[in-house]
Amino acid sequence: MGSKNKQVIINGRIPIEALVRDLKDRSEYVRAKAAEALGKHGDARAAEPLIKALKDKSEIVRREAIEAFGRLEYYRVVEPLIEALVHDESVYVRARAAEVLETLIGALEMVKQQCS
User: Fold this and answer.
1) Does 2 have pLDDT greater than 70?
2) Closest C-alpha among 11, 74, 5, 8 to residue 46
3) For 30-52, what is the HEC assignment?
4) The CATH number, out of the four listed (3.40.190.150, 1.25.10.10, 1.10.490.10, 1.10.580.10), of the domain defined by the range 16-72
5) Cα–Cα distance between 18 and 22 in angstroms, integer?
6) pTM (two decimals)
7) Dist. CA 66–CA 89, nearest whole Å
């Protein structure tokens, strides 16, 4: 993927470190493909580099970073949090699950208000 060197592929994937490095490439095409690949990787470590990619000068890179966030599926944490809230035997675990869910819902509401 990188314009200057060949990427090593491990288990059918380019290592996350190489993709993060490619997000800094001079070529917007390479940066965009790196953002796309980070989203397909599904690794939470991709979040911070993708947040930085949202500030890229290239619209294509920013768009791919947004798409990558959709593929990372962070919403998957909601179901286990609800499960813990409803079924965990510990009142402390249930309380913390409720707090985290409340924080997530608050963030969504804030975004919703800003978009209105």
Assistant:
1) no
2) 74
3) HHHHHHHHHHHHCCHHHHHHHHH
4) 1.25.10.10
5) 6
6) 0.65
7) 38
